[in-house]
Amino acid sequence: MTSIDPNNFLGLPNAPLESADAIILPLPFERTVSYGGGTWRGPRAIIDASCQIEVFDEETELDFEEAGFVHTLPMLPDDPDATVEQCLAAITDHVRQYRGRFVLTLGGEHLIAHPVVTGLTEDVQNLTIVQLDAHADLADTLNAKKWSHGTVMKRLIDDGARAIQIGVRSLSRVEFDFAAQCDRVETFYAHQVAERWVEIIRRLRGLTGPIYLTIDVDGLDPSVIPSTGTPQPDGLIWRQTMQLIEATMTGADKQIIGADVVEYIASPHPPGCDIIAARLVMKVLAHWWKNCRADLGA
After folding, report:
1. Which residue of 43, 90, 112, 284 lies most exposed, with the fewest beta carbons within 10 A?
2. Got the DSSP string for the chain?
3. Is the overall model pTM greater than 0.85, yes or no?
4. In this structure, are residues 148 and 139 in contact, taking their beta carbons and an 8 Å threshold?
5. Where are the domains of the chain?
6. Are 152 and 137 in contact (CB under 8 A)?
7. At a CB cut-off of 8 Å and minimum separation 6, what does 188 contact?
8. Does the 9-296 domain belong in CATH 3.40.800.10?
9. Residue 219 to residues 57, 170, 187, 227, Cα–Cα distance (Å)
10. In whole angstroms, how large is the CA radius of gyration of the chain?
């Protein structure tokens, strides 16, 4: 392996920005978390830990060093003097220049999904968002805030997106009723995952059109990743998560416009879960490379 670059995912040299197929965007944005804080440190911890991971993925047989398709951008700083709305608008403007690439964002809190999505596409009404999450994030307001990690999916649904939520096990009655009544929300609750597993995989494989994958790490069981602001029991195990990622990426007539891994809190005493979070990011990239890169004409 070549010398490690500590600012790049996996420590690998960047592919030239103008020709890179995949873009890693570290976004240490944290303004609205309502319990455990520290997601702003997540992107740095994930990149640091990724430098300790083997660059060959045995599941997809991808050697990241040989493939050379990833460019890691510098951290996008948060302006402390800007309002939340101004920060979100700035993120959208920044992301817009990378349309047509696969943009994988490292959060930061879950609210970043909204400006990233709107930066990647003007056609939100034709977008399907696959959401792995313990929480529905369908509140209209949270702590009197319209823009919040707990309202992000409601804002995207309001914009016209469709959502397939998997692993949800914490939500209000209002959110529950909204999900049941809205024909653009399809929720597979955690207690249903085992019995509906074949249906879930078939549903994801059968998706067509533009798709965005958002992974809140609290969607995984705390036995896998406890280091998040609001962990919940009865989550997805690692192998289930891998199968969901693979199913989302597999199938004809799909355009995966981007993905994110959010709500990770850096371990105070590494390695902790940092390497697990980095491995999760690596797997998203590997499955995208295996199943979706051909859509770019590779």
Report:
1. 90
2. -PPP-TTSGGGPPPPPTTT-SEEEEEE---S---SS--GGGHHHHHHHHHTTS-SEETTTTEEHHHH--EEEPPP----TTS-HHHHHHHHHHHHHTTTTSEEEEEESSGGGHHHHHHHH-S-GGG-EEEEE-SB----S-BTTBSSSTTTHHHHHHHTT-EEEEEEE-B--HHHHHHHHH-TTEEEEEGGGTTTTHHHHHHHHHT--EEEEEEEEGGGB-TTT---BSS--SS-B-HHHHHHHHHHHH-STTEEEEEEEEE-B---SSTTTTHHHHHHHHHHHHHHHHHHTGGGGT-
3. yes
4. yes
5. 9-296
6. yes
7. 164, 165, 166, 167, 168, 196, 200
8. yes
9. 23, 10, 13, 12
10. 18
Write the single-letter amino acid at 181: Q
Four-CA torsion 218, 283, 5, 18, nearest 10 degrees? -110
- Token representation of residue 233: 């029991």
Tokens coding 198: 């074949």
Predicted local distance difference test score (pLDDT) of residue 204 = 98
Picking from 50, 52, 44, the residue whose alpha carbon sits closest to that of residue 70 is 50
